[in-house]
Amino acid sequence: AANAPPVDDVTSAHALSAAKPYHEIPGPKAFPVVGNTWRFIKGMGNYASLDFVQLQKQLREEYGDIVRLSGMHGRCDQVFLFNPESVEKVLRNDGRFPYRDGPGSMHYYRTVLRKDRFKGVAGTITTQGEEWQKFRTKVNQPLMHPRSALRYLGNINDVADEFLDKIRTLLDHNKELPHDFMKEFHKWSVESIAAVALDTRLGCLAADLRPGSDPQRLMDAAHTVFECFVLLDFTPSLWRYVSTPAWRRFVRAMDTFTDIAEKYIQIATQRIKQRSSDGEGSILERLLIAEGPEVANLMATDMLFGGVDTTSNLAASLLFYIATYPIPQEKLAKELEMALPNPREPISAHVLEGVPYLKACIKESLRILPIVFGNVRRTQTEMVVDGYRVPKNVDMLLQHMLISHDERHFPRPLSFEPERWLRGGAHAHTAHPFASLPFGFGPRTCVGRRFAEMEVQVLLAKMVRNFKIEYHYGDKLQYQTTILNNVTSPLKFRLLPRRK
Ligand code: HEM
Questions:
Q1: What is the number of the ligand 1 atom nearest to the C-alpha of 444?
Q2: Residue 437 CA: which ligand 1 atom is closest?
Q3: Which has the closest alpha carbon to 103: 127, 80, 121, 79?
Q4: Are 166 and 159 in contact (CB under 8 A)?
Q5: Does the annotation place 204 within a ligand binding site?
Q6: Looking at the domain that runs over 104-327+466-497, which CATH code has it been given?
Q7: Which terminus of the chain has a smaller tally of CB atoms within 10 A, N or C?
């Protein structure tokens, strides 16, 4: 009919009035005074011992594809979404300034504690509204343009080569890597993202790192900041009222980040002054020239926060799947033999254009173990989701990990089948496009996606081109969910040189 609302209409008066009321969304009942908070108190509530992913599973089993959690003291209501159609509705209607709550500790550090240093600017991760948009607009062009990442391809190749050299020295008599090999992935990822963010080679993979050296301090600080996010922002903490030990450790680590970034910004400033030609500079130089040292520092540190643990855990999980699925590994090895006849040649942009199976392996790894297991948007306006009227200021929790594990979308969901991602292929998936969204979506999508993908593509190509990778300690990847999915399996990969 001429007056029928468009299919995607979720905010018009017509759509809202036809929807079911908000309070009818299924979910655990909030009791007077104690609300639902008691369910998360140890020794009292049935949700207290669950991590985020376990909580999601439990809620979906108990209540279905949309679940409301209200009465959480000090927090706004949360609505969990377990179907991709609803996720799409929310992400396509999140307004001009998509709102994703960030760690309050980091925001406080930048806007209150070290206000003088940052002159009122606070970066991308923790800001909202026009403040977020203003900052993001400044950094989008230098960071998100495809050419921007390619500028670093040479450095990313060098870091991967160093990583391969390093692992050759770590193999035991059985050609196996040590059980704590995860820490080498961390070094690789700090080194790779620092080459972009700080425009320098820090030397994280060196054999003899001194405790007070920049790479060692930066890696320690990265570790501490993530540990403290969990303690300060994701578990009850008094840091807003008193200076707790975790808060003090956090401030020291944040200061280290800021100081190291400042050092390399000063070096870049000198470089700019001495340069005679005005060809296109690095991301750091461009931000420095166009926006000044505060913006350059905040973006560099945001890249370090966003780009260390994410990429290292992706590399580790991806290699695990490659090692435990020999058929896809051999298919990939064949593709790489064609694309890179000489394994010692660098991985060029041209090589990366001709490796669809390699890219499919990365997508499949992120589908099974998305390192960022879910996303969140706070509603900016009243809207209809899954037939219910959801008011403004509700956190919509978009659970792509569980959606990707749902047989309705991906048959044999825990099986590593890169063929799902070969477009037009016989096994291409038919799932909704929002059923696997590891980097988010829309104007607030991951700013480092191109760098992460490039780093991991280069590493995987070099690893599989040079080694046959085996794993003999179980076929199920172990991980721990905190604010990210952290790989915990002992990464004792066995590496056998491939014939050239
Ligand atoms: C495997 C690697 C990575 C994954 C899975 C990942 C995932 C994500 C996700 C899901 C978001 C939220 C997006 C949204 O709300 O729609 C995000 C945001 C962000 N990521 Fe990444 N990321 C990765 C690597 C990186 C790297 C290498 C950088 C460094 C450049 C980075 C920097 C950021 C920043 C700064 C944001 C906040 C953007 C904003 O709020 O405007 N990420 N990432």
A1: 41
A2: 10
A3: 127
A4: no
A5: no
A6: 1.10.630.10
A7: N
